[in-house]
């Protein structure tokens, strides 16, 4: 406790089914009597073993335990607190001071925090309602909520008076306030660039799990994370939960090592101690008095370490491996603690050999039990021992926090540490500097501050060999990043293998630089940075070189009959080649969606820039809820959440317009942003007016002047805006643009349309209304999987809207699920999914309009069954028949250059953006809910052919934040006399990770009764130009596959033949997701 803090007695109440073993501390503290305050303590203990010595009770007011009670307890204890100003006499008697094994105190607070001695509660004090300790990760709202809940519980518990009578009722209310079920996540908050999850383990005890920056379960499924389990979880992260006011700052230490390239990403799991029964959990027997030097510990409990470690191995390890994807291999799993927690770590090695490959043992209280463990148990342990152990002790462990000083005892603790190290060398076969690191820090004390100071060195030693597993998968790569997927706004490290660079392999190491930038044209952030030798790999190489040296003759002779060690990494590691690896650290800008880079030797003039294409790394944008394509209804319930307008503008830089919020809500204000550079006929006109209405122009037709904004401008980007309020009964927004003098852009007569969601309820949240429902489902076996035909309900809207919907809305989905599909047990992040258009033509020949289908199900099944691709789902959306061109084209098709498509002159167009909005906001959430498919753009694909091929290219330009892979077959780029190619040239923004573009050399002639080689050449030229444009905008380095098939025409059979190769190219990366 901190000096000077006033403490109030706890409220009575809080009946418990647990058992409490009262504990008193012997000693004759000098000075005035301590203040006694009743405090709740949540305890988990084992039943006393046969022959165990009962706990002595010296306080006459203490409650005597009942002989037959349950084996666990939650009880009130009395804390003996020091006076507000410790008298000088307190500094003269060591017996009056607390043990750091129970109270870890920083040096500055040592005089004040003297004795949190725990004694049994007097009979007049009943159980109190527990309050969760305030932590650094607890928000003020969480604290208020917790306090309110505790107050409510306190008012509803049974209070027992001295005569055993019930003072009040309310058992049912108390039962309703039960703690969360085991392994329930209580809260989660960002910390040190990663995330800290607080998970309920047992009543009053938590797991505090820190995941690193860039952590993802999908990465964990591919390559499990190394993990470090630590005792005393309350002391690891925030300063507030600790009694000393100082934590280990474990998250900051881990994040710093990862960001500096010293360690690969790993997870830290803190396990809360048991409060008053901490020593019981961490010790194999009672601590004793250290030959009289620690009389305060005479009555402390011990003996529960076996049960505690069994719980760790049987409960906590399986949970973290299952829920967080941490490794189960001993070489990637460490355990540790300090003080009594360090003794517990040693017990983990001897009680559970082979489980942990590394131990962190800080300031172990080797004096406990009259040194019995060091003298008897450990010399008799046959092994195997953990392969890596970090053992540390300070030279003022006792005297640094107690008075008067005891330098003899300090020296004895250091001597015990050296004895332990010698035993590990002789019995475990560990060599200092290789598998064993021993650090005796001059002047260091028995405090969290000392352990926090040594933690980076300890982690660097214990996790150094983790690089072996990482490099075993990447030794043939030219470069890789940590984290594997860059995230906007977070730090990262890029590792470059100079030896594999044809242009730079022979250049001086200290001359290598990385030139990099973000987004199209390197327009965001970046620069040039010098690369340095990879920190972690260099340290591992040096350690392996030292290990290769022959040991001294005495050590070599002793090593002949040593037991095996466990947890040593066996992955191959090229120590000689490790010197070729260089690293560069950087921070990804918040607005970045992709990174471009090249390598150079600077003044030497040599470059490795991927043959002029530069290297490319996709950046994962952590979009806010309202920006995501999935659970749109969830975003509405959370509020309009306007988000960062500039971020949205960057994301929609290739669009004609966007709105904030991106999901318009009836009855709410909104802003429409229009890119003036993309308004046909009005690109430079300053008199830009907006005509808009709702529900098919039946409601609130209005006019507004658009005004320039302060958003970023570019060659083809100039955002103007107008504000509006959406009527409460609106279902859609329609608008057109004009200068007021006869020039219009009304989307070729179709107007621009944005859907509007339902209005908010009384509580401010939008009620969940399914925009599209499912009327019926028919399932049948198909291609070793199952084909589900979903008939959708009609969309809602006014009279005019309903008439329009009748012709243009989507009426049917065809969903193919692979063999072994289980929506209740999807892979991490959900099943990958491909959304195809023209659903009637996808699966069955008899239904396809030319009698031949794409046979998507059969192709997907073959690739999945052969193991070439992971299981994925195909969703095919039926076309709207006669109105197909309206939904699939951004404007009417016209007749093409020279009028070769006179049959298409009157076909409609211009409804593509409305179709995409319906697909993203109405159909995708429905599919995600029913079939457990992913919402991660890297695992979501969009595809189509002909007019739907244009839709696919449109999705690549305008929805790359939704679809990370795009399949465009024979896109009809002849529409509007090639206008779509002009739109592609103007695009400056994000593009998908991969795009497959296919066409034939007889796109026109193969499906007609006459030859037109000129038209065939024109159509092929359009596709070639589209590929050139995409390459110029960054689709290089293996991101774009353009396939021209000789003699192929414009029909499903050609697309069917190319589908296998397209899927292999687009979806092979799904294995990495």
TrEMBL record:
Annotated ranges, domain Carbohydrate binding module family: 667-757
**What gene is this protein translated from?**
PLEST006532
Q: Which Pfam families match?
A: CBM53, Esterase
Which parts of the chain span the membrane according to its record? none
Spell out the protein name for this chain.
Carbohydrate binding module family 25 domain-containing protein
Which GO molecular function annotation, any one, does this entry have?
starch binding
SMART domains with a match to the protein in the record: CBM_25 (SM01066)
Read off the InterPro entries from this record.
Answer: AB_hydrolase_fold (IPR029058), CBM25 (IPR005085), Esterase-like (IPR000801), Ig-like_fold (IPR013783), Mycobacterial_A85_antigen (IPR050583)
């Amino acid at each position: 406790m901190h000096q000077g803090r006033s403490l109030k007695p706890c409220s009575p109440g809080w009946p418990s089914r647990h058992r409490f073993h009262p504990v008193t501390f012997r000693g004759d503290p000098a000075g005035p009597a301590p203040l006694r305050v009743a405090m709740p303590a949540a305890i988990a203990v084992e039943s006393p073993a046969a022959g165990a010595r009962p706990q002595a009770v010296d306080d006459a007011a203490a409650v005597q335990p009942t002989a037959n009670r349950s084996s666990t307890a939650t009880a009130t204890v009395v804390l003996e607190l020091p006076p507000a100003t410790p008298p000088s006499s307190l500094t003269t008697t060591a017996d009056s001071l607390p043990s750091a094994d129970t109270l870890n105190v920083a040096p500055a607070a040592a005089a004040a925090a003297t004795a949190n001695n725990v004694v049994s509660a007097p009979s007049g004090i009943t159980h109190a309602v527990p309050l969760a300790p305030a932590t650094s990760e607890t928000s003020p709202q969480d604290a208020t909520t917790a306090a309110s809940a505790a107050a409510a519980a306190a008012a509803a518990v049974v209070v027992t008076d001295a005569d055993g009578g019930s003072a009040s009722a309310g058992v049912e209310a108390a039962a309703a306030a039960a703690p969360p079920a085991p392994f329930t996540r209580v809260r989660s908050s960002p910390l040190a660039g990663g995330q800290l999850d607080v998970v309920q383990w047992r009543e009053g005890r938590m797991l505090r799990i820190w995941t690193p920056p860039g952590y993802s379960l999908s990465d964990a499924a591919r390559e499990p994370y190394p993990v470090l389990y630590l005792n005393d979880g309350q002391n690891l992260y925030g300063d507030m939960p600790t009694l000393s006011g100082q934590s280990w700052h474990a998250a900051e230490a881990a994040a710093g090592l990862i960001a500096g390239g010293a360690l690969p990403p790993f997870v830290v799991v803190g396990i809360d101690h048991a409060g008053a029964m901490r020593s019981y959990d961490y010790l194999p027997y009672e601590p004793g008095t250290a030959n009289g030097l620690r009389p305060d510990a005479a009555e402390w409990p011990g003996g529960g370490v076996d049960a505690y470690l069994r719980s760790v191995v049987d409960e906590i390890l399986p949970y973290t491996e299952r829920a967080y994807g941490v490794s189960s291999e001993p070489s990637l799993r460490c355990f540790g603690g300090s003080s009594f927690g360090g003794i517990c770590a040693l017990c983990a090695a001897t009680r559970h050999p082979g489980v942990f490959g590394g131990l962190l043992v800080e300031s172990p209280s080797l004096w406990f039990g009259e040194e019995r463990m060091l003298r008897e148990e450990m010399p008799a342990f046959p092994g195997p021992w953990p392969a890596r152990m970090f053992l540390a002790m300070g030279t003022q462990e006792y005297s640094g926090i107690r008075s008067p000083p005891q330098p003899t005892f300090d020296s004895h603790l250091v001597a015990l540490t050296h004895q332990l190290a010698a035993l590990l060398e002789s019995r475990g076969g560990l060599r200092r500097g290789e598998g064993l690191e021993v650090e005796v820090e001059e002047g260091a004390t028995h405090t969290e501050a000392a352990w926090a100071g040594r933690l980076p060195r300890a982690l660097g030693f214990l996790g150094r060999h983790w690089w072996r597993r990482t490099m075993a998968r990447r030794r043939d790569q030219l470069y890789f990043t940590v984290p594997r997927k860059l995230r906007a706004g977070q730090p990262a490290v890029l590792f470059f293998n100079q030896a594999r660079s044809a242009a730079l392999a022979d250049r001086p190491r200290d001359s290598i630089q990385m030139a990099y930038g973000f987004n199209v044209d390197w327009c965001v952030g970046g620069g040039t940075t010098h690369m340095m030798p990879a920190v972690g790999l260099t340290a591992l190489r040096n350690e392996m070189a030292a290990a290769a040296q022959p040991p001294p003759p005495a050590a070599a002779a002793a090593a002949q009959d040593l037991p095996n060690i466990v947890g040593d990494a066996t992955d191959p590691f090229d120590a000689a080649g490790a010197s070729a690896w260089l690293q560069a650290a950087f921070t990804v800008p918040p607005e970045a969606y992709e990174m471009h880079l090249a390598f150079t030797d600077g003044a030497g003039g040599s470059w490795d820039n991927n043959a002029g294409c530069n290297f490319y790394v996709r950046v994962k944008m952590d979009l806010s809820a309202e920006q995501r394509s999935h659970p749109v209804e969830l975003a509405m319930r959370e509020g309009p959440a306007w988000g960062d307008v500039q971020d949205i503008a960057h994301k929609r830089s290739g669009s004609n317009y966007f709105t904030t919020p991106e999901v318009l809500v009836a009855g709410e204000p909104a802003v429409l942003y229009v890119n003036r550079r993309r308004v046909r006929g009005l690109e430079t006109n300053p008199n830009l007016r907006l005509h808009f209405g709702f529900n098919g122009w039946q409601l609130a037709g209005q006019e507004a002047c658009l005004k320039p904004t302060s958003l970023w401008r570019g060659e083809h980007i100039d955002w103007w805006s107008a504000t509006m309020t959406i009527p409460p009964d609106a279902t859609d927004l329609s608008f057109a643009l004009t200068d007021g003098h006869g020039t219009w852009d009304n989307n070729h007569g179709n107007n621009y349309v944005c859907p509007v969601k339902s209005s908010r309820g009384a509580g401010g949240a939008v009620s969940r209304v399914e925009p599209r429902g499912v009327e019926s489902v028919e399932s049948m076996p198909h291609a070793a999987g199952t084909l589900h035909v979903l008939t959708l309900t009609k969309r809602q809207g006014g009279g005019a809207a309903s008439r329009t919907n009748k012709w243009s809305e989507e009426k049917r989905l065809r969903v193919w699920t692979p063999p072994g599909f289980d929506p209740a047990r999807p892979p991490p992040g959900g099943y990958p999914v491909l959304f195809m258009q023209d659903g009637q033509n996808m699966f069955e020949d008899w239904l396809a309009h030319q009698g031949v289908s794409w046979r998507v199900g059969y192709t997907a099944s073959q690739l999945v069954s052969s193991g070439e691709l992971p299981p994925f789902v195909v969703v095919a959306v039926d076309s709207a028949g006669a109105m197909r061109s309206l939904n699939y084209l951004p404007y009417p098709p016209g007749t093409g250059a020279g009028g070769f498509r006179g049959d298409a002159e009157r076909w409609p167009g211009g409804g593509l953006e409305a179709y995409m909005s319906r697909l993203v906001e109405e159909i995708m959430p429905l599919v995600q809910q029913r079939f457990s498919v992913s919402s991660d753009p890297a695992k979501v694909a969009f595809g189509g052919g002909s007019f739907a091929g244009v839709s696919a290219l449109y999705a690549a330009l305008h929805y790359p934040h939704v679809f990370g892979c795009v399949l465009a077959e024979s896109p009809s780029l002849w529409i509007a006399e090639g206008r779509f190619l002009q739109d592609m040239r103007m695009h400056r923004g994000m593009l998908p990770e991969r795009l497959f573009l296919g066409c034939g050399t007889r796109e026109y002639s193969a499906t007609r009764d006459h030859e037109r080689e000129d038209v065939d050449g024109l159509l092929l030229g359009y596709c070639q130009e589209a590929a050139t444009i995409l390459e110029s905008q960054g689709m290089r380095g293996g991101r774009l596959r353009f396939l021209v098939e000789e003699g192929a025409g414009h029909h499903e059979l050609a697309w069917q033949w190319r589908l296998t190769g397209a899927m292999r190219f687009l979806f092979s990366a799904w294995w990495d997701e």
